[in-house]
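Notebook, p. 212. Picked up where the previous page left off. The plan for this session was modest: take the two constructs that came back from the sequencing core last week, fold each one, and keep the raw output in the notebook itself so nobody has to go hunting through shared drives later. Recording the first one now, exactly as returned: residue sequence, then the structure token string.
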Amino acid sequence: MAAEPRSSLSYRTTGSTCLHPLSELLGIPLDQVNFVACQLFALCAAFWFRLYLSPGKTSPDVRHAFATIFGVYFVIFCFGWYSVHLFVLVLMCYGIMVTASISNIHRYSFFVAMGYLTVCHISRIYIFHYGILTTDFSGPLMIVTQKITTLAFQVHDGENSSSELDLQSSSFPLYTQAKPSFLEYVSYLLNFMSIIAGPCNNFKDYIAFIEGRHTHMKLLEVNWKEKGFHSLPEPSPTGAVMHKLCMTLVSLLLFLTLTKTFPVTSLVDDWFVHEANFLTRLCYLYVVMQASKPKYYFAWTLADAVNNAAGFGFSGVDKNGNFSWDLLSNLNIWKIETATSFKMYVENWNIQTATWLKRVCYERVPWYPTVLTFILSALWHGVYPGYYFTFLTGILVTLAARTVRKNYRHYFLSSKALKVVYDIVTWAVTQLAVSYTVAPFVMLAVEPTISLYKQLTSVFLPGEPHGPKSLAGCSP
């Protein structure tokens, strides 16, 4: 796809154009401005929802209705007529929910939801080539797909738990014993707290939140009396929300500075391709990949704050007796940046998606669970070639990391000093391995990915490779 003028990209959207002057003023594409505006409005709506539509004042049906109405409005504001895809998928899968047998409901829902998502990915990118508009509606569609399949599997498991699944499975506490009503179904899938940026959550937790049982249910799960409480407290999310909003602000500032200073396009610049030596290329790759993270930190942390502001996301009491609001958190920034293994990194990045992949694929498939889980992850993300480079490379890196850890880690546990050396080396190797693995995910297209790989392997090959000088066709 040929690069287009920024001023053109800033206006092309199927959503509302009322914020176009602000988009022009900030020099940020209109669809991104609409996204942030919706999330900020959702934050305000979430506080109002918790204070004025609390379970003690309002019936569950009213809470469901308002959550759904706000969610539908936000989707239409951001994506305009593209939002029809969301509504069509929701209605099709509700038809499956009420007509399919329990024994097949998870299969039909999975194949319809993933099939529809894949068709949309293909048509948006390859058939219409982004058409005349640039709005990316696939994000909400991906979240809805996760929720549809999560609920379908939990309804199926609720009827078959004794015969088909190990009761010690991580999915067991989340089984759903009855099919939801239409209002519950659309509220779970389209509520304003998660429709734009997620995260995926469990139906049982969501219904408990709407009915006012969420925090008490989580307190009972963690044996609150042992934490020093003599009666069920009423945790406030305000502190957690303020903390996450501060993290969001820092991420936004980093995005506006670091990300624009080190764009992914610099990985195919003449300097990187022809002049930089191997170590410089490796370090620069790490910096560029670090610079690509703040937009994810911003979107996921803000989405988490929106849910918390509405009173959703309480996870219990931690070991220090503090209330935790990380049930829906999608990342742990500290653990990501200090990860000493590929597994640790992956487990703390896009946490809710990793949980979804584990429950609908990894714990269920009888053969090659790691390989099939990576393939499903790639398919869910989309059809850009870069995704498949990343996830196929991820399979090899995961298997290699397991082998190295199993065969060599025990040699470094005999003393504290050796363990420190081991942690430092594995941290550096992990961060560079992740940068190498995820670079195609950010670059998207085949040509720049192959060019990058040539530059990074040139130290082992005779001659100096020459790659393309542009990222045409990579990033929208």
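Okay, moving on. Second construct, recorded in the same format:
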Amino acid sequence: MKSSARTAALVAGAVAVLVAPVAALKAWSEPADPRISVGAPAPATLLPGDVRDAAGRMIANAVWTGLVSYDPETGAPVNAAAESVTSPDRRVWTVRLRPGATFQDGSPVTSRSFTGAWTAVLRERWAGSRLFTEVARVRGARAGEDGVPGLKVRDERTFEVALDRPLSGFPALLGDPAFFPVPESVLASRDWASYGRAPVGNGPFRVRSRNAREIVLRRRSGEGRSVAVRAMPDAKRQYTAAGAGELDVATLVPPDRHESMEADFGDRHLAVPGRDVTSLAFPARVERLSSPTVRTALSMAIDRSAVTEGPLGHQYSPADSLVAPGIRPGHREGQCRLCVHDSKAAVAALADAGGLKGPLNLWYETGRGDDAWVKAVAEQLGRELELDARPHPVADLREAVDSRQVDGPFVVHTTAAYPAPVAALAPLLDAGTGLDDEYATGLLAEAERAAAPDEGVVPARLAESALLRDMPAMPLWSRHDHLVWSERARGVTADAFTGLRLDRLTVAD
């Protein structure tokens, strides 16, 4: 070998020897994936008007900015895409948009971006349509129809929404994904399949890529880390991965690890109160169940904690109110004193009411995951009160209620559409109990038309007290979510209406 060639080879070898440890050290010190990773079941859809699961809601709130958002500390609505939402009578609302807002494709966010999107939700009969027809009750809103008389565009930044009756909570409702905007080009094309695969929103994140394994969200500003939402429906896998540092945030916790979260993660875990309540309601026309004393006896005979810690796997909290804990302001702890398990009081109350003879059917709908807990409640009623309580599944519970087939307590799942106590109580009026209490219904109507949301809290609480006294429905439990996270994750924040706040997530440097 010539001298020059030999010298070059020696230099190259020396460089390789020096570089190799540096490269190895860099590979060891840097995370394999610099993105922030979140585990969650795959969402059913990314169309905001059709969101129907927690994962979809979490992602939608990152990709879109609604007219309002929710303060994670107080639960109160705060203006976001809206500059103002005002009304002189709580019936006709004027929405004024912030100037200069654009979608992630650069197109402007206009009044038609909202009114057109809302019309599409109704026309396509998406999951959010009931919020327009049953909750907000926008004038002339009909599922399946192309056109809403209650929506009027005034200019590029101003539109009006007319409701069928005053609703002080209307601004709070506008934070739901059903009310998010859509670019006018998409509204014109109506190519919902393509838009659902790669949606364009007006929020802090845009969808960079999507496949069966993960949805990658990139920050619109270009600053900060991307977020990879990994399709991980198995709670045990999420929990293990977060503990090993292979996943930054787990949104599911397996039932058998509920008691060990603090030992496994220290202060890196969070319980997020929910906005739904599961109840057993009573058909008013069934005379032997019409006595409030009978109903309270049944309520006190149920050991809610035993069911939530058993068949429900620590994923629910025993109810102590008709208003779910995730609704702030409005929820008050300990309102349902008759929800506390008390065997002796239950037996005495049933005896005072003259007893309850014959089979007691517990009606519920198949396919909703209620089988195990309904069976457990039936066994408790049999053991505590010596009743012949029988689970009674049906394919369509609402049809059975409406056709007057139901002859016993029936399962009701209610979800507050916005953070206010009246939003939790109003669905009970439509549950099919046949409740005819002018005092309670009058108070709920007063809460809905209050001059300000805060002024509706007192009448709603009075209505709750009246409903708990007569107990047309006895609350059982409310679902809550659990989050655990790795040592490097920071900024983990969540609430009942938004879910995990992806825009607040960071990692330790």
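Notes on construct two before I forget. The radius of gyration is 27 Å.
Flagging for discussion at group meeting.
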